[in-house]
């Protein structure tokens, strides 16, 4: 079934990535990376050599030109196979590429974007803190100007991929906390800078990148590491809630879509192979109906993800549509994966089957990038529902 008439460059991207996944990411390796919580850096570098990080970067900086639909398809395909490769791809193409292209200074664009494209430079997001989840503007980590340096102190939590990253894209308070939305800045902190320590958190899924508690003790960086430089000083809030946030919501939707698609493929195949009562279990109406439902929901997720990506490509900004896509796709994808797990019966619950990994990975999608509750708040508020 193919309902999408796709332009030639997208068809080529799909073919190239399919071949790459088959060749470089066989399932035995994918399972090993997950089991050992291993980041296969050599695969990331091969993706960069293919030019994949350039999907988000303008030609002036060595990329192929920003293409959100193509980026979402790459996320879907890579995350459907392995979060240990798909996660770092997002950290490079999106966290680094899209953010610096969107809100970096001209100097930062010239220095960083060619490295994203050529080397697959990796950023980690240092936004959440021990006492800061949805209420991002409450951050307590600080940046203090000392001469021509900025000195960072504080603690970040759930900093995914911090250990494999080149920079931590760190949100700090750089002015009095009374004006909580204005006095925030984003800072590029080299992940190996003296004064940074990491402590791994033991998360259920998203193996490969890992997620970390990161402490900053008098970490000193040049003042020009403030993202956007002068324009970015005390101005992080507008950077965080701008077009970058729309794309971040879509990144999570595309991850969830990829994981759900992989789960449907596995359940579809398994149901036709597993024999009970002398027939494949796909002959039983209850199983057939579950498979029809997951395929239908998956189709709806895909249509909504691609349509919203096209809106972003056309208009650059779609705060309501991206919240709707993030909310719907992540919830539906979770339902899809849990239904697929039921189709595998006991085998959906053991490590030998990929379904077990899909279940662990999908559970976090409605939480990441603004929880489902926060997306519902956004939709009502942006559509001005009376309070
Ligand atoms: C595996 C993993 C990886 C992550 N990676 C990163 C990362 O790389 N960088 C990073 O900065 N963060 C990361 N996070 C953190 C993630 O972004 C936060 O979990 C998320 O922002 C929600 O914060 P919280 O979990 O502290 O929930 P809280 O904000 O404490 O919320 C708890 C509950 O209350 C609800 N709630 C909160 N406020 C409201 C409200 N106003 N209205 C209605 N309901 C509300 C929430 O929906 C939730 O159900 C990661 C988390 C996980 C689990």
Question: What does this molecule look like?
Answer:
The strands form 3 sheets. A 4-stranded antiparallel sheet has the order 2-3-7-6, with no helix packed on it. Strands 1-4-5 form a 3-stranded mixed sheet. The protein has a two-stranded antiparallel ribbon with strand order 8-9. The chain folds into 3 domains: 8-121, Orthogonal Bundle (Butyryl-Coa Dehydrogenase, subunit A, domain 1); 125-235, Butyryl-CoA Dehydrogenase, subunit A, domain 2; 242-382, Butyryl-CoA Dehydrogenase, subunit A, domain 3, CATH 1.20.140.10. The radius of gyration is 21 Å and the shape is globular. The N and C termini lie far apart (44 Å). It is of the alpha+beta class and 387 residues long. Helix 1 (8-24) packs parallel to helix 4, helix 4 (68-81) crosses helix 8 (243-273) and helix 8 (243-273) packs antiparallel against helix 11 (354-362). It is 51% helix and 15% strand. Flavin-adenine dinucleotide (FAD) is lined by residues 125, 127-128, 133-134, 158-160, 203, 206, 211, 364, 367-368, 371, 373-374, 377. Its cofactor is FAD. Pfam families: Acyl-CoA_dh_1, Acyl-CoA_dh_M, Acyl-CoA_dh_N. Residues 8-117 form the Acyl-CoA dehydrogenase/oxidase N-terminal domain. Residues 124-219 form the Acyl-CoA oxidase/dehydrogenase middle domain. Belongs to the acyl-CoA dehydrogenase family.
């Amino acid at each position: 079934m193919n309902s999408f008439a796709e332009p030639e460059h997208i068809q080529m991207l799909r073919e190239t990535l399919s071949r790459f996944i088959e060749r470089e990411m066989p399932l035995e390796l994918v399972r090993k990376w997950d089991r050992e919580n291993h980041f296969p850096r050599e695969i990331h570098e091969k993706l960069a050599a293919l030019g994949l990080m350039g999907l988000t970067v303008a030609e002036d900086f060595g990329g192929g030109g920003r293409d959100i639909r193509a980026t979402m398809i790459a996320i879907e395909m890579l995350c459907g196979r392995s979060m240990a490769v798909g996660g770092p791809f997002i950290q490079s193409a999106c966290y680094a590429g899209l953010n610096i292209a969107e809100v970096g200074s001209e100097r930062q664009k010239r220095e960083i974007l060619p490295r994203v494209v050529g080397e697959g430079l990796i950023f980690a997001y240092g936004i959440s803190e021990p006492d800061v989840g949805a209420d991002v503007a409450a951050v307590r980590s600080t940046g203090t100007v000392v001469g021509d340096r900025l000195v960072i102190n504080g603690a970040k939590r759930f900093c995914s991929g911090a250990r494999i990253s080149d920079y931590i894209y760190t949100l700090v308070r750089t002015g009095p906390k009374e004006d909580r939305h204005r006095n925030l800045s984003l800072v590029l902190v080299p992940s190996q800078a003296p004064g940074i320590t990491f402590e791994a958190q033991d998360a259920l899924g998203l193996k490969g990148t890992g997620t970390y508690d990161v402490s900053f003790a008098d970490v000193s960086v040049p003042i020009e590491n403030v993202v956007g430089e002068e324009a970015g000083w005390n101005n992080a809030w507008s950077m965080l809630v701008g077009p970058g946030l729309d794309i971040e919501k879509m990144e999570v939707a595309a991850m969830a879509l990829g994981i759900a698609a992989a789960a449907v493929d596995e359940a579809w195949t398994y149901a036709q192979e597993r024999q009970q009562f002398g027939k494949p279990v796909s002959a039983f109406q209850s199983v057939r109906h579950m498979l029809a439902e997951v395929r239908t929901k998956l189709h709806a997720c895909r249509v909504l993800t691609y349509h919203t990506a096209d809106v972003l490509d056309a208009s650059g900004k779609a705060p309501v549509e991206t919240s709707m896509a993030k909310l719907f796709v992540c919830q539906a994808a979770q339902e899809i994966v849990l239904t697929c797990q039921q189709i595998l019966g006991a085998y959906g619950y053991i490590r030998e089957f990929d379904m077990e990994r899909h279940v662990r990975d999908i559970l976090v999608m409605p939480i990441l990038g603004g929880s489902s509750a926060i997306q519902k708040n956004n939709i009502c508020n942006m559509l001005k529902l009376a309070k």
